[in-house]
Specification:
Elements lengths: L1 E4 L6 H10 L4 E4 L7 E4 L5 H8 L3 H9 L4 E4 L1 H5 L3 E2 L5 E2 L6 E5 L10 E6 L1 E2 L14 E6 L1 E5 L5 E7 L1 E9 L2 E4 L7 H13 L1
Parallel strand pairs: 1-2, 1-3, 3-4, 4-14, 5-7
Antiparallel strand pairs: 5-6, 7-11, 8-10, 9-12, 12-13, 13-14
Length: about 200
């Protein structure tokens, strides 16, 4: 069973619809019990999200340590990292090394970054296999993950700076963009996680 983690912050119905459209069973739940894969979506502030996730933290760590696949989407990807500077300093799940930072402002650059951007793969990954160059995905974010280990970065995009758009280390996957809002391209990337 695929579990979409409900911790009170995220567009859970949209993610569930996308998963079911791809032909997979899933449930929205506040527990990982019975899950063989999990998706951690997120919309909102990092600190508030971590406070809500705290009761599930040990279960998430145990789930990942057993080698079960976990996908973080948007804020969900950011929560996988060690810390965030959003509205103060906040500790993350620490499953990946790095810090969540604000996109730097520049004249004429709109933040939050909202819209379609090219996804450029920078290393091999199950996400990348046979994927067409120039594909566009949909972003809504003001912060990005500053990865401590460049090997965790699978794909990049650009908004003022180049930033990690997708990450992977073993069974941990992250997508800064919203695959559930990114049309056929997003669904294909989501399928790759669900079939992996």
């Amino acid at each position: 069973m695929i579990v979409i983690l409900d911790y009170g912050m995220g567009n859970l119905p949209n993610v569930a619809r996308a998963v079911r459209r791809l032909g997979f069973d899933c449930r929205i739940a506040a527990s990982l019990q019975g899950a063989h894969k999990a998706i951690l979506p997120g919309v909102g502030a990092f600190g508030a999200a971590m406070r809500r996730l705290e009761p599930m933290r040990s279960d998430i760590e145990r789930f990942v340590s057993r080698g079960k696949p976990l996908l973080g989407i948007c804020l969900g990807q950011q929560l996988l990292f060690e810390s965030s500077e959003e509205l103060g300093e906040h500790e993350g799940l620490g499953l990946l090394r790095g810090t969540v930072r604000y996109l730097p402002s520049a004249p004429g650059l709109k933040i939050p970054h909202m819209g379609w951007n090219e996804l450029r793969f920078v290393r091999e990954s199950p996400m990348r296999v046979g994927f067409p160059p120039g594909a566009q995905v949909y972003f809504v974010h003001s912060l990005y993950t500053d990865c401590a280990d460049p090997e965790d970065v699978v794909a990049e995009s650009e908004h003022g700076i180049r930033f990690p758009a997708a990450v992977q280390r073993g069974n941990l996957w992250g997508m800064q963009f919203h695959p559930e809002k990114s049309g056929a391209v997003g669904l294909e990337l989501l399928r790759r996680f669900l079939e992996w």
